[in-house]
């Protein structure tokens, strides 16, 4: 028996622990009477301890006044169902003399908990379970109470597993003996337990919510480290983490009745499904279901079914959001749906639908599971956005062709991109971190760079496009360097960022242009081209004889002193140039005169068939210099070359037999149209067509007839597609491909039906075919406007898979691919 005087002599922390133990022994009366199972009695006593301590502390100013509320109550009682249960091995450190768990609890009740602390101190010296060794140091107040309550719960849990049948018989016998005597006490207990359960359920499930948040946080921090793995591996790891979180949630569950528990595992399963897809939810579900089966109990079947239902709901959400960004409305819909499912399931599990059950059990479980889904989803979406931005910045930094770097105040490299590392002969940017220019270049240049950078960081001024010339071995290089000081939130300079561009090619081009300009100036005097100079008012100041001779009809006015408007009016009157407007000639003259003083190159077509090249350049003082050259021969040669090039291109891109686009041109076209579809979010469809039994057709009618059959099929295709946008190509042999830009699945199916109907109407004989005439099988693949990016090869492969699906199912039909697996849809 624990007496009040002994209760006063122990420390406040141990008093709190003995209050918990007193509640454990008090509840054992209900266990002995059969009113509660051992697990239910111990668990309810722990919940009652929490609430009782909160109520008592709120009324007590000191621990002594707290003792007055508790002291003097008898504690002699028995835990009959525990009498035959052995002490678990993990608690034998409290003493080897205990024959059963009941002896252990009685010994703790008689001696107090101080010897227990001594035993745990002894165990801590062996460095075992260090986080749980010294609870009086690791926790204070209610944390110590929580730890020892967990110990009592685990003892009784082991005893319950060993003596389940004895407990059941004892409970039934005790209930029959005390049916009338304990009725009033049962009613009072039920009322008190409802008060306790509501508070405890909220407390435990809120703690469970913290566990869910911890699991999501762990995954968010692991996510960046898993970027190198494949998508399937990442999803499986995500499912594994969510499954472990579900186990932890079930460990911290709230028992509704023996074998039935409430926790937040369903939120993790739903999150695993909508974010990870089938692979993830299979991993999570397998782990959670396996652990729930291991727990056992009367509610195991309903618990497993509930997890399957939530997983199914989550997969429904995954199917809805697949291929697009998950939005808040999707998360809210998933949360509400799971909440409704849990509402029905929990009421079914508890077996009661009264207000107390709804208030104490259903409401916290449903609300916190739904809230957990929303919180976890928002955190994951935020981390996804951060990961995307981080990947984007990393890609921009590493893939830019320039040399990017960041230095600290000591001019040590903190960050460099891959090009910077490669330029300095390092295999990885990380190997340059911590180095300075003294490790990379000569001492003299390193000192120069160091002092320049220190001066830049000291002054805070930005250096933009400073050109540097370096002799790198036998090679001469020019670099443009931009350096910017970096500041913290207080405005203090903490380092600098730099970008260096290799402008050697640009410098060499500028040098070549400069040399060419000088050569042109020297050759000006003896040039055969026409040369003229106009002042700012458009008056011809100077021209050579070649300039006047190039314009036979207006050459008389192309002399010094003439105005450009008078010259242009003469050109209009004589129709010296082709393509001049017949109306609004004054407007054209004014516009052409205004554009005289602009740098431009143009070619004009004269009435006699000659072509002139006019190059206009402005001088520093606003003069316009015009150089006119006869480029007739070059223009004619250019036109001839263009015609030849067009003809060669046509031959290179056209199938010689059918006149359709060939495979090479198709590859270019599909890459171009697919890029346009992705960029502009438009639909794109492709049809792959195969002539059924074509080899037998060749064997039966000969290759010449086979060639004619191919031409007929290609003609039918060209008749049903849009000539301006759609592309018909011979893919190889008897296969054709039709590219339909801007067409969705419905339009593609309509084109396919029209083509089949047109071909069937011709009724080309084919005795070797089961249909008696030439037929085709068609596979259709469509990329919708909001579908994810896809490669050209994958796009064609989907159509090819659909084609073979049509052939497998009897030929002369159309099959449609949904982009991931072939959905066998047929069009007649």
TrEMBL record:
<dbReference type="InterPro" id="IPR000700">
    <property type="entry name" value="PAS-assoc_C"/>
</dbReference>
<feature type="transmembrane region" description="Helical">
    <location>
        <begin position="236"/>
        <end position="256"/>
    </location>
</feature>
<dbReference type="InterPro" id="IPR011620">
    <property type="entry name" value="Sig_transdc_His_kinase_LytS_TM"/>
</dbReference>
<keyword id="KW-0808">Transferase</keyword>
<keyword id="KW-0418">Kinase</keyword>
<dbReference type="Pfam" id="PF00990">
    <property type="entry name" value="GGDEF"/>
</dbReference>
<dbReference type="InterPro" id="IPR000014">
    <property type="entry name" value="PAS"/>
</dbReference>
<dbReference type="GO" id="GO:0071555">
    <property type="term" value="P:cell wall organization"/>
</dbReference>
<protein>
    <recommendedName>
        <fullName>diguanylate cyclase</fullName>
        <ecNumber>2.7.7.65</ecNumber>
    </recommendedName>
</protein>
<dbReference type="InterPro" id="IPR035965">
    <property type="entry name" value="PAS-like_dom_sf"/>
</dbReference>
<dbReference type="GO" id="GO:1902201">
    <property type="term" value="P:negative regulation of bacterial-type flagellum-dependent cell motility"/>
</dbReference>
<dbReference type="InterPro" id="IPR013656">
    <property type="entry name" value="PAS_4"/>
</dbReference>
<keyword id="KW-1133">Transmembrane helix</keyword>
<dbReference type="InterPro" id="IPR000160">
    <property type="entry name" value="GGDEF_dom"/>
</dbReference>
<feature type="transmembrane region" description="Helical">
    <location>
        <begin position="204"/>
        <end position="224"/>
    </location>
</feature>
<dbReference type="GO" id="GO:0005886">
    <property type="term" value="C:plasma membrane"/>
</dbReference>
<dbReference type="GO" id="GO:0000155">
    <property type="term" value="F:phosphorelay sensor kinase activity"/>
</dbReference>
<dbReference type="Pfam" id="PF08448">
    <property type="entry name" value="PAS_4"/>
</dbReference>
<dbReference type="InterPro" id="IPR043128">
    <property type="entry name" value="Rev_trsase/Diguanyl_cyclase"/>
</dbReference>
<keyword id="KW-0812">Transmembrane</keyword>
<dbReference type="GO" id="GO:0043709">
    <property type="term" value="P:cell adhesion involved in single-species biofilm formation"/>
</dbReference>
<dbReference type="Pfam" id="PF07694">
    <property type="entry name" value="5TM-5TMR_LYT"/>
</dbReference>
<dbReference type="InterPro" id="IPR029787">
    <property type="entry name" value="Nucleotide_cyclase"/>
</dbReference>
<feature type="transmembrane region" description="Helical">
    <location>
        <begin position="300"/>
        <end position="321"/>
    </location>
</feature>
<keyword id="KW-1003">Cell membrane</keyword>
<keyword id="KW-0472">Membrane</keyword>
<feature type="domain" description="GGDEF">
    <location>
        <begin position="682"/>
        <end position="819"/>
    </location>
</feature>
<feature type="transmembrane region" description="Helical">
    <location>
        <begin position="328"/>
        <end position="349"/>
    </location>
</feature>
<feature type="transmembrane region" description="Helical">
    <location>
        <begin position="268"/>
        <end position="294"/>
    </location>
</feature>
<dbReference type="Pfam" id="PF12860">
    <property type="entry name" value="PAS_7"/>
</dbReference>
<feature type="domain" description="PAC">
    <location>
        <begin position="463"/>
        <end position="515"/>
    </location>
</feature>
<dbReference type="InterPro" id="IPR050469">
    <property type="entry name" value="Diguanylate_Cyclase"/>
</dbReference>
<dbReference type="GO" id="GO:0052621">
    <property type="term" value="F:diguanylate cyclase activity"/>
</dbReference>
<feature type="transmembrane region" description="Helical">
    <location>
        <begin position="361"/>
        <end position="381"/>
    </location>
</feature>
